[in-house]
Structure to design on (699 residues):
């Protein structure tokens, strides 16, 4: 049985289609990433999978249960961290977890031990009596991670758990997630718009844009699937006028973009192209100021499939990302 | 059922840690009780009445003497003598005096010839309370003037004997039932309206909705906790307000128990009303925006500050459906008249039916999805 099985799922808000016929499957034990800019439909998709929104069309099975017809069975078997920070600010860390343990009907005998284990694994046990109000954003997220697991779910949904956190807290959140996952049977579905995170953490990634699935595979395979395995960024002093044409003709070069004397060269063999370039520059008396060779990133993958850079797309603000999000509905 | 208590527990913990909210919702009805109680309903005293005597005959002197006697005794008004009617009218227009009593020339002659003698009261009628008081006082002064020295009641004249069933009720005590209802409403508004929508907007409810809690458990959790908060507030103001207003035997345990029953009914009916209004609202500004309007619509047409019999017809309809009206009536019966519960059975029945209707409608409108 697949942990998650999404079939042609659709969500419309009035005339607007937020999720447009997405299908994918997630295996048990996988960390599956949904990657896409704001407004791509990631939260809407997660909300349908976690029974918060009824789909307009299509179906989804979570743990083998239909998200519409067997909503309660789905709820019992999943843990969810919504995009907004939803921990109770006035309550202490431990109280937050206790309330949720009760809402999930965790037996009293197990409750204390589970809560302690979880708070220790997110390194908050020593702060358990502190009001959440007084915690940093990263610590609040960790409270929510512990809270989402308090009933030992087999699938964990996290909607942009690291958005808005500083780089150190982001790393801490990921480390903890990985550690928690290594000690239990857990399938994780996580959304993010940080490429580097998705790259390092996810077993497989689905790239979502404008409500549609544009690519789905393991990060390595996604990167291998697009032309240009390496990007060379080179800056020259006074390149001759026909320089661009000459670079384009060098071995393994797939495309060249030039602005002033800075060249961006896509190559399917970085080292070979670099050697040829340096030799040609020396022969022509052109000085190389700087040279860097990068492997393809998920950014390049995103550009390839959507025609625009993710870091630009992320800037397109979405109303649903305000902390006081108004949910119509 | 344990899930309901988890919601209630959470709400009560959140509530305890918001002392500012608690204080504001208790202080407001108390301040209103004390300020309104002393600002209104007192007897008007020391109004200034100018007297212009243009006659100077014996009957005119008698009028002036009577006026002087009232001024010295009841202090309702003070007399200022004017020789010049123009000066008196100027002072009236400029607000230095409240009325001018004019004894016209020929007054004495008309009294003696029984030719319809008149005195005139020219008054500043921009203030209803002041002018009603002046007209009343000077009217009885004229009546005294007309009476023979030793009044003989002819057998045919009817006299009205007024028997007061209850001890004199100062205005502050009259206001107390409204203030208790108000304190319950305040807590319903803050604890049940504002906090509810804020939590919803913050996404807290989204967290509840992914747990296996049912729709009815959620609704019960929110409304039981809201009712508990409102009852605590109502009970507090009942005790403090009774002490402040000087209700006899304020801590009589039997009556407090009866009052508690009414408070629970009122709290639940107002929570039901609030839940119905807020069930589909998502904007945190909404409860704040309707607060004042709702407060006015419930409080003033309820008979809390002015008898409902004085309302125009449309407002009497409003008053008839307003749960506040029944709340005020029930509190008034218990606090001011010490009636048994049977006297307020009708109020409790209305509040019960109102709660059931509002809560059923809200339950139908409540969605267990976003
Ligand atoms: N309740 C709603 N009503 C109308 N439009 C909505 C609603 N929720 C989301 N949307 C719209 O659907 C699109 C996808 O939103 P969302 O799923 O939040 O994207 P993401 O999580 O990828 O940033 C956005 O354009 C958003 O404005
Ligand atoms: Mg989102």
């Amino acid at each position: 049985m697949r942990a998650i099985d999404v079939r042609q799922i659709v969500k419309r808000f009035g005339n607007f289609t937020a999720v447009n016929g997405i299908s994918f499957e997630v295996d048990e034990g996988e960390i599956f990433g949904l990657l896409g800019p704001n407004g791509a439909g990631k939260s809407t998709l997660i909300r349908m999978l976690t029974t918060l929104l009824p789909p307009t069309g299509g179906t989804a099975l979570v743990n083998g249960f239909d998200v519409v017809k067997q909503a309660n069975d789905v709820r019992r078997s999943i843990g969810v961290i919504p995009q907004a920070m939803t921990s109770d600010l006035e309550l202490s860390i431990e109280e937050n977890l206790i309330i949720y343990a009760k809402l999930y009907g965790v037996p009293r005998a197990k409750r204390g031990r589970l809560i302690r284990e979880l708070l220790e694994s997110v390194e908050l046990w020593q702060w358990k009596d502190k009001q959440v109000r007084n915690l940093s954003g990263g610590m609040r997220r960790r409270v929510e991670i512990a809270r989402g697991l308090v009933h030992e779910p087999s699938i964990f949904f996290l909607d942009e758990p690291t958005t808005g956190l500083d780089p150190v807290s982001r790393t801490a959140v990921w480390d903890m997630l990985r550690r928690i996952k290594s000690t239990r049977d857990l399938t994780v579905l996580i959304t993010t718009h940080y490429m580097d995170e998705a790259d390092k953490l996810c077993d497989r990634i689905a790239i979502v844009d404008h409500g549609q699935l544009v690519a789905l595979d393991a990060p390595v395979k996604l990167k291998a699937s697009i032309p240009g395995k390496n990007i060379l960024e080179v800056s020259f002093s006074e390149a001759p006028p026909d320089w661009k044409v000459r670079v384009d003709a060098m071995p393994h070069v797939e495309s060249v973009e030039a602005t002033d004397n800075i060249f961006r060269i896509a190559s399917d063999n970085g080292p070979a192209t670099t050697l040829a370039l340096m030799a040609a520059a020396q022969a022509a008396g052109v000085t190389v100021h700087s040279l860097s060779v990068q492997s393809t990133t998920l950014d390049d993958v995103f550009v390839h499939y959507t025609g625009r850079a993710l870091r630009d797309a992320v800037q397109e603000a979405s109303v649903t990302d305000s902390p006081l999000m108004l949910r119509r509905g | 059922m344990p899930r309901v208590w988890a919601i209630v527990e959470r709400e009560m913990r959140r509530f305890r840690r918001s002392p500012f909210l608690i204080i504001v919702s208790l202080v407001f009805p108390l301040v209103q009780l004390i300020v309104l109680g002393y600002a209104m309903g007192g007897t008007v005293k020391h109004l200034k009445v100018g007297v212009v005597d243009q006659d100077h005959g014996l009957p005119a002197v008698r009028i002036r003497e009577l006026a002087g006697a009232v001024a010295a005794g009841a202090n309702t008004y003070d007399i200022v003598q004017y020789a010049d009617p123009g000066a008196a009218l100027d002072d009236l227009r400029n607000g230095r005096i409240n009325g001018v009593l004019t004894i016209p020339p020929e007054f004495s002659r008309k009294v003696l010839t029984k030719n319809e003698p008149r005195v005139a009261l020219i008054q500043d009628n921009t203030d209803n309370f002041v002018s009603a008081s002046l007209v009343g006082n000077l009217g009885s002064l004229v009546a005294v003037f007309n009476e023979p020295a030793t009044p003989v009641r002819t057998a045919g004249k009817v006299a009205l004997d007024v028997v007061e069933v209850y001890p004199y009720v100062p205005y502050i005590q009259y206001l107390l039932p409204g203030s208790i209802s108000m304190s319950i409403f305040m807590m319903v508004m803050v604890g049940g309206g504002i906090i509810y929508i804020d939590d919803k907007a913050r996404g807290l409810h989204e967290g509840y909705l992914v747990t296996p809690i049912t729709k009815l458990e959620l609704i019960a959790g929110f409304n039981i906790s809201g009712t508990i908060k409102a009852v605590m507030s109502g009970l507090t103001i009942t005790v403090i307000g009774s002490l402040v207003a000087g209700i006899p035997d304020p801590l009589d345990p039997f009556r407090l128990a009866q009052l508690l029953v009414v408070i629970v009914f009122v709290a639940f009916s107002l929570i039901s009303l609030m839940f119905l209004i807020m069930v589909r609202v998502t904007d945190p500004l909404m409860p704040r925006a309707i607060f004042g309007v709702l407060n006015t619509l419930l409080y003033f047409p309820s008979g809390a500050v002015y008898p409902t019999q004085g309302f125009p017809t449309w407002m009497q309809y409003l008053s008839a459906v307003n749960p506040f009206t029944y709340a005020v009536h029930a509190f008034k019966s218990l606090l001011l008249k010490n009636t048994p519960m049977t006297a307020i059975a009708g109020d409790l029945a209305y509040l019960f039916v109102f709660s059931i209707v509002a809560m059923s409608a809200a339950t139908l409108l409540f969605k267990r999805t976003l």
Notes: Chain B has a mean pLDDT of 90. Chain B is about 65% helix and 5% strand. The radius of gyration of chain B is 29 Å.
